[in-house]
Amino acid sequence: MSPTTPRFPSRLPNVGTTIFTVMSALATQHKAVNLGQGFPDFGCDPKLVDGVTAAMQQGHNQYPPMPGVPALRQAIAAKIEALYARPYSADAEITVTAGATQAILTAILCCVGPGDEVIVLEPCYDSYVPNIELTGATVVRVPLTPGSFRPDFDKIAAALTPKTRAILINSPHNPSGTVWSPEDMRRLDELLAPTNVLVISDEVYEHMVYAPLRHESVARYPGLAARSFIVSSFGKTYHVTGWKVGYVAAPAALTAEFRKVHQFNVFTVNTPMQYGLGAYLQDPAPYLQLPAFYDAKRQLFREGLANTKFRLLPCEGTYFQCVSIEDLAVPERDLPEADFCQWLTREIGVAAIPLSAFYGDGFDQKVVRFCFAKRDETLREAVGRLERL
């Protein structure tokens, strides 16, 4: 008798292959323009690569300190203070992470356990819910307002209980491109002030907010900052998503708990990339110019889509554009969003992501998401194909 693999109960029985993997594979199979998964199809600044190469050549190839290379943590703290007027201690309040996804998981693991409740605002990034489920806590889903994707604070207030341990927020918001306003942040601050609820603030698109708006980091709001883990990503900011380097800023007491988990799930992060990023951060121009860089791509893509029957939803931030498919003159518009996206990839040659993938119940609004972090010629090619609809 041949050996058998032992059976065990799945920790994530409802999780399969992510929609991003499915759609990217389908795009490759059908040679479609991939506007689904959120990554650029262009390179980063050669100076950044040169900085990493120099770090390798200088011998920075062994383990760095567990919280991150000091020069990088100091640069992160300086950036946050310059942008949001809040000082963080590079030694005690900044931790370099293996991307934002690891940062979010670690933040949840360090403070959430069985019996706790954690609020997520749907639609939300697909790692949030599995991360919470791994702790044995209960996920409490609160919908953002359909259509506008604004936070509904009456519903958030109703979801708060003595068991609520944390709330995850995300601005600029993936997938909708909505940006929280100063009033939104003040409302959240007031709502949480009498509670012990922690905030995990996913701010990976912080440098992609379009005028006249600005990014409202929780760091700007003392009451929120005192209870928050702020998560950001160099991969998003510097067009190097494959490097998987991010960071968390949090008060010292929260950081101490965060690092207890961090040291045992990754311990530390790629050394030469940390040195390269630390040197590159000394010049703020690349991230200060990023809103204008992506705004030009946003305008190019939106102007192109204006010649189609897709109905454009507002895009205040991120590099994602959501559209309604209800007015398309094809029968496939009546398909569920996920089926429509597969048809669009196979038959039209453009890959998108269904918004229903970001809801636990698959809520279908006839809305799909495109990524415009692409070369201009890629966007023009995609629009040319979409004009056939």
Q: What does the overall shape look like?
A: globular
Secondary structure tally, helices: 15
CATH homology-level superfamily of the largest domain: Type I PLP-dependent aspartate aminotransferase-like (Major domain)
List unreliable stretches of 5+ residues.
Answer: none
Strand order of the largest sheet: 2-8-7-6-5-3-4
- Tell me the CATH topology of the largest domain: Aspartate Aminotransferase, domain 2
Mean pLDDT: 96
Radius of gyration: 21 Å
In short:
This protein is 39% helix and 14% strand. By secondary structure, the chain is of the alpha/beta class. The protein folds into two domains: 19-38 and 288-386, Aspartate Aminotransferase, domain 1 (Alpha-Beta Complex); 46-283, Aspartate Aminotransferase, domain 2.
Folded structure, characterized:
This protein has 389 residues and is an alpha/beta fold. Helix content is 39%, strand content 14%. It has a seven-stranded mixed beta sheet with strand order 2-8-7-6-5-3-4, sandwiched between helices. Strand 9 and strand 10 form a beta hairpin. The chain is globular and about 55 Å long. The model has no long low-confidence stretch (mean pLDDT 96).
